[in-house]
Design brief:
Layout: H1 2-5, H2 12-19, H3 28-44, H4 50-74, H5 83-95, H6 113-124, H7 130-134, E1 152-153, E2 156-157
Antiparallel strand pairs: 1-2
Helix pairs in contact: 2-3, 3-4, 3-5, 4-5, 4-6
Length: 158
């Protein structure tokens, strides 16, 4: 994980054991955070190579995110330490990092190719995060003039 956060490219095999989440209730919080940190390290370690980031997103991160989102929704309540929201927030914070806290709506034309691709995939999975809101990205179909008072994020509205 340290290599990834240092910007070195690392292979998924190096983080393989950290991706698996076991159902041991006493360690559930650690498993959720360890998996999120592993995905962050894998992504950050690839940021200098846009094609590698896209491959990591497609092969490793988006499938796991989709799976965890489905589990989250099937629970009909928030788990104590749900992997899906933590993972979604971290991924979008990394991908849209240069737009965070800008205080105005962001046009998709302002995004680079990788960010637009990521946004399209997130919209296709019906995922929106607090980090995306902070970057000025509103949920698909909502504009600043039509924005409702409350936006649904995860199992609650903000």
């Amino acid at each position: 994980m340290y290599k990834g956060f240092s910007g070195e490219a690392i292979e998924k095999a190096a983080l393989e054991t950290l991706f698996s989440t076991y159902q041991d209730e006493t360690l559930l919080w650690a498993q959720a955070f360890t998996s999120v940190i592993a995905t962050d390290a894998l992504l950050i370690g690839s940021l200098s190579d846009k094609q590698r980031v896209r491959n990591v997103l497609d092969k490793d991160i988006f499938p796991l995110l989709q799976e965890k989102k489905k589990e989250f929704e099937e629970e009909e309540q928030e788990l104590d330490f749900p992997l899906y929201p933590f993972m979604a927030e971290d991924i979008t914070s990394i991908i849209f990092r240069n737009f965070l806290n800008r205080g105005k709506a962001l046009e998709p034309a302002d995004l680079d190719d990788l960010q637009r691709y990521c946004l399209e995939r997130l919209y296709a999975m019906k995922i929106h995060t607090h980090a995306m809101l902070h970057a000025g990205l509103l949920p698909e179909g909502i504009t600043p003039s039509t924005q409702p008072v409350l936006l649904p994020i995860y199992n609650y509205t903000i």
